[in-house]
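Technical note accompanying the year-one report. For the benefit of new consortium partners, we illustrate the data format agreed upon in the data management plan: each record pairs a sequence with a structure-token string. No post-processing was applied to the example shown here.
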Amino acid sequence: MALEDSIRLIVEQVLAEVTKTQVVGETRSNSSSNAGGTGNDAIGDDLASVDLQRYLQVPQPVNKSLYEEMKLSTPARIGVWRSGSRPLTDTWLRFRADHAVAQDSVLGEVPEDFPGKYDMVAVKTMCGNKDEYLTRPDLGRKLDEANLAIIRNGCRKGVKLQVIVADGLSSKAIEANIPNLLPAMLQGLKGMGIEVGTPIFVKYARVAVMDVIGEELKPEVAIVLIGERPGLGTAESMSAYIGYNPRQGMVESERTVVSNIHKGGLPAAEAGAHLATLLKRIIESKASGVDLQQ
């Protein structure tokens, strides 16, 4: 059985367990007795809708205010309590469901029609499939001659800014954030009078694909919007890597990074506006990465 099929079966099994009457009943019972009268006694039929930072599962905590403060200070799963030596049913199901979502995001694909919705030139790295992408990071940084030709024919050289969108390690991050981030960023750049080339979408890409495209198109600045490795907190987090004078042989310290772009971190539309301002600063300073701080 293929890995993607196995993950799909896990997700279906988790969803089936969540909707079972006895699980819902137990969950409500656990929530009512363990929340300490905080109003979190209605977990409902969808465990994914619960805000874990406000869900108090430890029964009769010695210091409830400290417990609440700790939960709100981090998205980490703390104070989830237990049943004997085992986790509570809703805790275990939520863990399995979020883990399955994270795996699905890594192994999933951005829809084929996605680049066309944003007038992007679509290319693919030298990775033949997702398995090769995960096991051969070096190939995710390279484009073959056929894909370089697509870029040459579809994009202008020497623009002020080249935008690159890459699926990276989370297809869900791209689908969730690009629709709001990209228009906000492009509108901000247009208002600042910054020339932007035709956006490029790169499938199976790593951050350093920026170097190959930079070497080919010679933009003054390049930005890569790429899906981050998902975790249990979110599978929709995206990062922006910006490089002044992108070229082969760039080192990581030459890139400026804005991370944790998602609805629970830096919201997409706000990130777009922030990136436009940051890009203007990088262009004016003619530097990125550690050089920008000096």
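Partners are asked to follow this layout when depositing records. The two ends are 54 Å apart (CA to CA).
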